[in-house]
Amino acid sequence: MRATKSWIAEYADLPAGLDAWQLADALVSAGLEVEQVEAIGGDVAGPVVIGRVVDFVEEPQKNGKTIRWCHVDVGPDHAPEVAPGPLVKGGEVAQLEGGYWPRGVICGALNFAPGDTVVVALPGATLPGPFPIGSRKTYGHLSDGMICAEDELGLGHDHAGIMVLGDADESGTPWVLGAPALDAMGVADDVLDMPVTPDMGHCLSVRGLAREAAQALGVGFRDVIAHTTPAPTQAGHPVVLESEGCPLFVALTVEGFDPTAESPSWMKQRLAACGMRSISLSVDISNYVMLETGQPNHCYDADALQGAIVVRQAAPGETITTLDDVERTLADTDLVIADDRGPIGIAGVMGGEDTELRDTTTRIVIEAANFSPVSIARTSRRHKLGSEASRRFERSVDPGAAYGAARRVADLLIELGGGRLVAETVAGEVPAMPVQTIDAGLPARILGMPVDADRVVEILTASGVEVARDGDSLTLTPPSWRADLVDPYDYVEEVGIKVGYDHLPSIVPAAPVGRGYTTEQKLRRAIGRALASSGFVEVLTFPWASEADADALGLDADDPRRRTVALSNPLAETAPLLRTSLLPGLFGAVARNASRGADDLALFEAGRVFFASDEGGAAPLPAVTARPSDDDLDAIERAIPWQPRNLAAVLTGAWRPAGWQGGATPASWAQAIAFAEVAAGVVGVRLERRTATQAPWHPGRCAELLVGDTVVGYAGELHPGVIKAFDLPARTAAVELDLDLLVSLFGGAGTLDPVSAHPVAKEDIALIVDESVPVADLQDAVAEGGGELLESVRLFDIYRGAPVPEGKKSVAFALRLRASDRTLTDADAAGVREASVAAAVERFGAELRG
Fold first, then answer.
1. 717: nearest Cα among 697, 736, 735
2. Could you tell me how far CA 13 lies from the centroid of its own chain?
C-alpha cells in the first residue's frame, strides 16, 4: 500500500512538524511495516519554474518530426541577459512587458498553445534520472531550458505531452511566473510504501492508515465514511442476491454525468503517487475512493445493463470477457455478477467489457459490495487474475463502509462530472460481528508484563472495539473493519501491539532439564563436520521438484523416486511436487554457480526427501472443538509421506587446483566415493563397492555402496544426458546416500585396540587374477587369510600387459603385520604372507606373480 503523508493528514490530526519518517515510526509501532519513504519531487533540483508560452513556430525536420521553437516567459528573475533567436529568420524579438527577454526553448510536444502556463526546467536544473539541464544547440537553435512533461518531473507516467497548468492553481490563485513549480503546484509530498499483512486488511486504505496513525500518535481522527448503511431498499436498479458469498450489495444510480470532464490534477497526482495511472474521470474516482476507503467499487454503464443485477455462483462452462480483453471460462466456485444475458463481472476481481463505461456514458450504476474473502481468493488464484480489488477482498473489507464508499463515489461524480444521484438500492445487510468475552487480566498474563484492566479497555476502545465491562469480565464486539479480531488471543495481540512490543520484558526462559542431543543427531552433525573438513561445502536447497526433474534424471517409469507428493498450494506452478532426491536441487546450485564463473565445486546437502504413502488418501481435517478420534489419528498417520533423510554431493571442475607442485587434480568419481567413505567412517562402518546400473549415473561408471548386504547409496560419474539436461559441466560426479539408514548401522562407541609398542613388519604381494575379479573382493580375501597378525592391507598397483597373460591383471597389495605382545620373526611374516596368498588362490584361483 502506497499513501501520501498529506492524504493521511486529511483524516488524522498529525502534529505540526511531524515529518514522514516520524509518521513511519508511528505506523511501525502500530504493527505495520514501512519499507521506504519517497519524496515526490525529491529527485528534482535547481531552477524548475512556472512559465508561460509567449509564441512559437513549428519547424518540420528531415526525420519527419515536427518541433516547436518557442519563446517562453519565465519571469524577470530568470530572464536571459540577451534576446533569444527570432521565431523566423530575419525577424525581431520584442521584450516582454516589464522590460526583459523571453527564453528560447525547443519542444517536441504539440499539445500547447500561446498563452498556456507550463513548467520549465532552466539550465542548472536536474530532473529524475538524473538528467541535468543545460543550454545546448539543437535543431539550429540554442535551447535555453526544457518544457516538462509530468513523467519527466517524476509526478506520474504521462508522456503524451507537456504539462499544461491552466490559468490558476486549485484555489483559483493566478500562477506567478518564475515561481518554483513544485511548490506552486503543491505536489511536493512524501509517499510511504508499506506491505500489508493479511490480518491488517483495513490498512489497505488511507482511512485505515490514518486511523492507526491517529491512535499511535494520540491525535484526532476524522472518518471519510460519512454515511451509515440504510435499511434494505430496491428504489434504484434492482439487485438480487442468490449466494451466501455476498451478504451486502449497494447500487447507486447517477445520471447526467459529463463523460468529457477531466480528472483534476490533485486526483491524478495522488493516484500517480500511489502507483495508479489516470484513465478517465469516472475510473479515476473509482480508484481514488478504493484507495481512500479500502472499499473496492465498480461503475457500470447503466444503459448497457439488461435486467436486474444478480449475484450468484457461476454455472460450469459459462464464459466472460473481462476488462483486460481476455475470455475466461468459469467454474461453479466462481462468484459472478450477472444480468439477463449472463455474467457481466467476476465478483471482487474484475468487471466485464459488456457493461464497462464508454466515452458516451452519462448514466452510471455504482456498485459497492461485500464478498467472501475465501471465495475471492479462490477465484483470483484459479484465474491467475490478481487485482487491487481482489487483494483487498482476500484480506476482508469493511462491510460497514460499502454504502459510505458508494456515496463518496457518487458525490465526486456529481462534484467533478456534473451528475446527480437519482436512486439507491441496498440489498442485504451488514453482517454481525462476532462477540467475545475475555478476562481483563488475560493480556497481562500472556504478554508477561503489567497491563491493568483500565489500560486494556482504553486500548481496545481506541481500536474501535465496543467494550462492555462487568468487573474483570470484558465483552468485546469488534468494529466492522476488524475481521481479524475473533479469538481472545487476537485481542491480546492487539493490546500487545498498541502497548508496544519494545516494552515487553526480555526474560530468557529457564532451560528445561534434558539429555542433550540424541545419538542420531550427534552422528548427523559429526558427519556434516567431517565432510566440511574434507573440503566439501554444505548448501541448503528448496525441497520443491517437478515431473520434468524425474524425466531429466532418466528415471524408469516404475522407479520409486517417481512416487512423488503433490503440493496443494505450491509456491511455483513449475515445481508443484516435493523432492524424492537431493540431486536436482544440487544440480541447480551447481549450474547457478557455474553460470557465475565458479567452476570448481564440491557441494553437499543433508535433507529430507519425500515419498507418497503406499496407502494413499488425504489426511482428514478433524474439528478443533475436541480431541481427534483414534481413527482420525491413524488416518493422519497413514497419510503422512515417508520422509527419510538423504545425504548427497556433486563435484565439478578441479578438486585440487594447479600450483607449483603440479597440475590440477580433477574432481571425479574417486572424490564422490571418498565422500561416502568419510560419512561411513564417522558411523564406524566399512563400505563395500560393486559395479551397478542406476539413474542418473553413467552405466559402467556407477558404484553401488554397501555395508554388508545393505545398499546405502550410489556414487559415480553422471550420465551425459543428465549433464546436458541440467546444464552441468562435463564429467560431473555425484553421490547420494540414505543418511537415516547409514546412521542406523552405528553399532555403538566400540573399543579401541591397544597400541602395540612392537615394530611393524611389511610384506608386498602381487597376484595375477582374471580381469573379472573385483579388486575389493580380492583384497577382502587377502585380509581374511592374513589372520590377526595382519594389521592392514593397502592396494598400491594394478598392472596389465606382458608378461601378464591377456585377460588377466596383476594386483599388488602392501601388507602391514604387527603383534601386540612381541616382535614378529621372519617366519611369522612369511606365514602371514603365505596364508593371504593361499586364501586368494582358493577363492579366485589367483597366481602369485614372481
1. 697
2. 35
Question: What are 521-559's pLDDT values in tens digits?
Answer: 999 999 999 999 999 999 999 999 999 999 999 999 999
| Nearest in space to 251 (alpha carbons), one of 268, 263, 234, 265 | 234
Rounded CA separation 497/500 (Å) = 5
Question: What is the torsion angle, in degrees rounded to the nearest 10, for the CA atoms of residue 30, residue 31, residue 34 and residue 35?
Answer: 170
Q: How far is the C-alpha of 229 from the C-alpha of 248, rounded, in Å?
A: 10
Is residue 696 reached through a cis peptide bond, with omega within 30 degrees of 0 on the bond before it?
yes
Q: What is the largest CA-CA distance in the chain?
A: 126
Distance CA 273, CA 742 (A): 60
The residue behind cell 460519512 is 226
Quick one: average pLDDT of 317-326?
A: 94
Helix ranges, 10-55 (H)? 20-29
- 66-73, strands of its sheet edge to edge: 103-107, 66-73, 48-60, 117-121, 146-147
| Cα–Cα dist 125/134, whole Å | 8
Q: Is 630 helix (H, G, I), strand (E, B) or coil?
A: helix
Torsion-angle region of 140 (φ positive above 0: left; ψ -120 to 50: alpha; else: beta): left
Peptide bond into 803 cis (omega under 30): yes
Q: pLDDT per residue over 494-515, tens digit each?
A: 999 999 988 888 888 888 887 7
pLDDT exceeds 70 at position 749: no
Determine the Cα–Cα distance for residues 130 and 65; give it in Å rounded to an integer: 26
C-alpha 522/C-alpha 527 separation (Å) is 9
Cα torsion through 46, 52, 57, 61, rounded to 10: 30
**Cell numbers placing 349:** 476481481
Q: Kindly state the helix (H) or strand (E) to which residue 183 belongs, with its residue range.
A: helix 181-185
Joined grid coordinates for residue 390: 481482489
pLDDT of residue 751: 58
Work out the percent of the chain whose per-residue pLDDT is above 70: 99
The confidence score (pLDDT) of residue 334 equals 96
Integer-rounded Cα radius of gyration of the chain = 40
What pLDDT, in 10s, does the model give residues 707-736?
989 999 999 999 999 999 999 999 999 999
Per DSSP bridges, beta strands 733-738 and 309-313 are unpaired
User: In the structure grid, which three cell numbers stand for residue 528, read together?
Assistant: 556434516
The closest of 421, 391, 393 to 408, measured between CA atoms, is: 421
- C-alpha–C-alpha distance, residues 700 and 718, integer Å: 11
d(CA 122, CA 101): 14
pLDDT of 666 > 80? The answer is yes
Q: Is the dihedral of CA 267, 268, 269, 273 positive or negative?
A: positive
Tell which residue, 709, 703, 707, has the closest CA to residue 744: 707
Compute the distance between CA of residue 300 and CA of residue 339 in angstroms, rounded to an integer: 12
* Count of CB atoms situated within 10 Å of the CB of 698: 18
pLDDT value for 753: 66
**Residue 479: what residue type?**
P
